[in-house]
Every structure is written in structure tokens, then in C-alpha cells.
Amino acid sequence: MDEIKQTAGTLYLCATPIGNLEDITLRVLRTLKEVDLIAAEDTRNTIRLLNHYDIHTPLTSYHEYNRFDKAAFLVEEMKAGKNIAAVTDAGTPGISDPGEELARQALAAGLTVTSLPGACACVTALTISGLPTRRFSFEAFLPTDKKERQQILKELEAETRTMLIYEAPHHLAATLKELAEHLGEDRPCSLVRELTKLHEEVFQTTLGGAFKRCEETPPRGEYVIAIEGRSLKTAAEEEQKKWDDMPMEEHMAMYTAKGMDRKEAMKAVAKDRGISKRDVYAALL
Predict the structure, then answer these.
(1) Which of the chain's termini has less CB crowding within 10 Å, N or C?
(2) CATH code for position 186
């Protein structure tokens, strides 16, 4: 293989289909045939893909529960000259899966790591969501730890980019309810499910409408929740109102307490409030 070094091995992060088996590149298929070993998140899923394309490369299991020790083992194999392809159950390794740890350890060991692009559920969902695509935030699955989860939800309240969240069908209703409580029931969103599969669907609605739908029809399939970000105009108006509601002297004291002299504090206050320094001076008098 002209891309594989003949000394130390290389780690190939190979994107695999997220549903339709035709969504795989010729480069990934060639690499899967030519590497010495394939590290798969679930060998049972990967073997079906390999059988479909008549690929007989040896498989080893690499998943969430053995990601640290097994990554160390795979790094040693690459140091000895083996070339290894890492694949996830679906999509691009390293995106919300243990491939991230393997790549980190390989790079720390001075090995070559390269990514072979292909299917990725979050980007696929974004492009068909009907929501703004220029700026987006990928949140993967929300944390299961209650404290961490609440912290993330609180941060999302101020997010102005389109948000992408993965969710399983049996947790979808509860997650939508939480999101509606934090972001508002009328926040536009799209429920995208079963990407690239026979029953692929995009349901454009609001967080409240999405939750209502889940109550009426039990969710099926894997979901990506795409949520419109907070309006920049609304954010600016609320920020301005915060300053307008604060007494001028208190606003000044906020900056002088940080060590600013009165002149610099007046300049900062004027900028916050969108007024001139002369107006600040007159108000203080």
C-alpha cells in the first residue's frame, strides 16, 4: 500500500456507513483490505460490512469498556510495524466514540494517524434539518450525570449556533422535555431519524411540538435533534436591558472594583450601554 509506511505502523480512522452500505469510499474499502488488523467497536456489526465487500482482514474488539488498555496494546502493535484501521459501529471514528482515545495514544507515541473521511451522522442531519448550517455546535449525547447534564443544558441556553444532539428512542421524550424547559417550547428544531435508511425522516417542528409527538407516537430508530440557536438580536437586546436596569453608579463601581481608574471605567460603561462618555458623565453628575 503506497500510503502505509514500512517502518512503524499507521492508524487509519475509517468512516463506515451510518445505514446504507453504499455510503463508503473506495479508499476506505482498499485500506480495510490492506491493513494488518481492524479494531472495531462491535465486531458483530463490522463483520457484516466486511462480508458484504468480501474483506477478510483480521478483526479485534475495541470499545468503550476496554478503550484505555486495548489502545495501549494497539499502539504497541503499530510500533512493531502493524498498520491498523479503526472503525466505529457507524460513521466516523473519534466522533462520540472510543476512537478518540486510540488516536490520542497513537499520536502521543509518535505514530502517524490519518482519517479517511466518509459518513458522519451529525453533519448529514444538519444538512437536511432546514436550520442554519454556517455555525453549529455538536453536543453528541448529553451527559448522564445529573449535575454535568444540568450544567450543559444551562450553557445551551445562551448558544447562538445550531445545536446537534444525539439521542436513543427510549430517552428521546425525556431529553426533549428538558431541552424545552431550558430553551423554550417554541424553539424551532428538527427531529432527524434513521439517516440514510429506508425510513429516513425529517420532522420540522418546535421543542414543544417534538415532545408532544413523542407522547403521541412512540419514537423508533436513532435520532439527531437539530435545534435553532438563540437569536443574536434577542441576545443583544437582553444584554442591553441588563445594563439599562443597572444604576449607573453601580455599573461604574463594577469596573472600578477591578482596578480601573474612573476615566477608563466611564469608557467601559459607555461601551456596554451603547452611549457616549459624555452621557455617562452627565448621568453621574
Answers:
(1) C
(2) 3.30.950.10
Inform me whether the pLDDT recorded for 26 exceeds 90. yes
Q: For residues 101 and 163, state if they share a domain.
A: no
Over residues 112-120, the mean pLDDT reads 96
Distance CA(151)–CA(87), nearest Å, equals 31
CA 149 from centroid of its chain's CA atoms: 15
* Residue 186, C-alpha cell as written in the block: 417554541
Of 66, 68, 12, residue with least CA distance to 36: 12
Residue with cell 462480508: 51
C-alpha span between 15 and 12 (Å, rounded): 9
Name the helix (H) or strand (E) containing 40: strand 37-40
Contact criterion met (CB below 8 Å) for 122 and 226 = no
Task: Please say whether the dihedral angle defined by the alpha carbons of residues 146, 147, 148 and 153, taken in this order, is positive or negative.
Answer: positive
The domain of 51 spans: 10-119
Under 8 Å between Cβ of 36 and 82:
yes
